[in-house]
Amino acid sequence: MNNADNKPNKSKLLFGIATSIFFVILGIYLFSTATEQIDTFHAGFSESQYFYSDDSKQTLLVRYGEIQNLPTQLQKEIDKSVVSEIEAELPKPTKGEGSYRYYNSFCCPHCSSPFIDFQKNRQIRPNEYYGNKYINEKIYTIDDNQLAEK
Question: Which one, of 42, 62, 63, lies nearest residue 128 by Cα?
């Protein structure tokens, strides 16, 4: 057996290293690109609750007291029927179609995957007091649109 047979092929090794570096850089780029397009706010400090539109393109901020029984940040028990009543009072997003919902997730602007999937992990939502919006998008309020007709 020849010693040359036991040595790793340098071109394969270099290709493997280059490929690994490429995917690491690609991952960093995609993560930084997504996060550079997101702005975060602390809803607890503003004494407000936030709702994302179905397509995650708009964020609605509702101050405590604007809608009766609005869940507060860090609230222990969230009543499904109360959430349904509140969602029925929310305005419609001004762009696109759909609704604002308590358990809608904020999604990646590139692939539309949820950052935190509140639909599958409903127990997480009451503890998430940091809301998000896309850069260059405003935070919508009740004043931007009328409450839904009762």
Answer: 42
pTM: 0.72
- Closest by CA to 59, choosing from 122, 125, 129, 141, is 141
Q: Are 98 and 54 in contact (CB under 8 A)?
A: yes
The Cα 115–Cα 86 span in angstroms is 24
User: What are the 10-residue block averages of pLDDT along the chain, 150 residues in total?
Assistant: 58 66 63 66 87 93 92 86 94 86 92 90 89 89 61
> Exposed, middle or buried by CB within 10 Å (0-12, 13-18, 19+), for 13?
exposed
- The tens digit of pLDDT for each residue in 109-141 reads 888 899 889 999 999 999 888 899 988 888 999
Give CA–CA dist 138/2, Å, rounded.
69
